[in-house]
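PROTOCOL LOG
Step 1. Enter all chains and additional molecules of the complex.
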Amino acid sequence: MSIDNDPFIHSEIAGRDLDQARAMYEESYNGAGFTTELTDTDFAYRYTITGDNEMTLRSSMFLGSVQGAIQPENEYVVSWITGGAGVYDVGGDELPLQIGKPAMFPTGKQFAFEFTDYRQNLVHFNAGYLERIAAEEEGTLPGGLTFDHTAIPDDEALRQWRNTIARVAKTVLTGETTTLARAEVNREAAASLLRTFKHAGPPLPEALLAPRNARLRHAVEFMHSHAHLPITPTEIADDAGLSLRGLQVAFSRHLDVTPTDYLRGIRYERARDDLRNLGPRDTTVAAIAARWGFAHPGRFATGYARRFGESPSVTLQR
Amino acid sequence: MSGTSPDPGSESDWVDTTWAEFFGPLDPALLFECTATIHGRQNAVFVYPHEIVVEGPEIAEHRRSIPLAEVARWWLVDEPGAVVVTFRNGHDSAARVPRVFRPALETALGKVLGPPRYPEDAFSGASEAESVSRSARVDR
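Step 2. Run joint prediction.
Step 3. Record the structure below.
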């Protein structure tokens, strides 16, 4: 059985070698070019993972100095240090971490960090999972969430977050639970995170709020959550319980667009998010276009400029 | 490096204590450790100054200690979400751990055993997973 299909994992890696540690952390957080140094402390590192494909509770200990830049992919991460010192640097804005104060990893963008002799707890959420919970809890469309990493949660929200995480950690870390119970605590943690940390998701067209348009809304939600896959109008219609003709009529009547054009619009928005969050040293316009299913970079650039009023290369440079 | 987990005194300890502490203290004699428990089945590689201890569900009695000098070759095979590390010293002993640990595993084992050396039959005529299963069967 592969680990991907396994619902629960409890794992650990630890050692006393800087090269091992650097390799481990670069891989874990999609980083590169880390620099590490010894401090007065005997060097050791330790990284633990407990949880499943929806959420994992992790801990990290690094008794040395490490700095670099990372860009986590396909996940949302909240963390807090329990010892030592750390700072995030997002585009020149330094965010010193305080012991016990949770902070979201900046979403969708590369950011720099520097940590010394630190211990840290982290909660990693699978991106698709957290986006689905956000849609269910908040009535929004499933899709990429953008967290404001500079926003400071109020004291009451943080108190509730701590209480929730204490319950969740007790359940998950002991491993003495059922799949169903773990699904419940995963959801509880996800909902608490969404209540605690300011964020924004995809906007919901007003026409989709009417109960009579429930199937249309279902189709739109399906498109948002599957935009990264090669889905067809027939599959979208089937999933929404509509005929292909019914799907086309509903989109035309309420959203004034064809299903194919609507899906293309979602993909343009996702491409724009990527271009904003990455820099010219990280990617190219052609790579982003290909990632979102645009086979011809020239046509992508033309459509992008028509939609957003600037060329994709300008967005990437900003 | 694993041991008995501490018993937190209060609810807030579950937030303020580094979760690694619930895994137990680090063994000072160990150079490297990589473990994964999946559905209660333990997989692990422990590297000591003079030996490697491998644990896995396919190993006889689930655990084998191999002096470093007796490891004829070792290699890594990727699976979806996992990497399988196999040591050969007459027997093949394999452990399966999360893929994210691969670079550290390769670095750690490379320093004590030299670079990985794949056996001739590692991938021939079989998928990677089948190859690993075949290696593991040698052990039974």
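Step 4. Note key features.
The interface with chain A takes residues 1-2, 8, 11-20, 22-23, 26, 30-39, 79-82, 96-108, 111 of chain B (CB under 8 Å).
The longest strand of chain B covers residues 32-38.
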